[in-house]
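Narrative summary of target 7.
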Amino acid sequence: MSQVKSMLYPLIHFYDALGGRFADLSRPQLRLMMKLTGDPPTISELAESLNISSPGVTQMIDKLQSKGYVERQSQEKDQRLVRVKVTQGGRGALNLALASFEERVEEVLRPLSRDEKDQLLALFLKIEKRMSDPSER
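Modeled conformation, tokenized:
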């Protein structure tokens, strides 16, 4: 069995352990809200970065907008181009969700020693760097 194949089940179990709701946000909503912390992206940019369809992102935005967590901004030059911006209420909801997520991660990682957690962090950062830098792929 390849190394990668032997990681599949543990990775899926880890992913499942981090599932559920975090304060008022589902895991997919939390992922989307985290993408809104910089310059307001378009729906298609969000869909690409989240690896889901534009209609799926639109549905999530609709739900978050109904809660007052995000707002859509049309561009003056092109009304078809809509950017999504987090509201002040959304920032509060995101902060609560991140605190809840942090508690869940701490619970899942509780069996690890401090050194093991440091090693895991270093590995996650290495993977993140490689995934975010096209020249590293």
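The domain at 21-136 is CATH 1.10.10.10 (Arc Repressor Mutant, subunit A).
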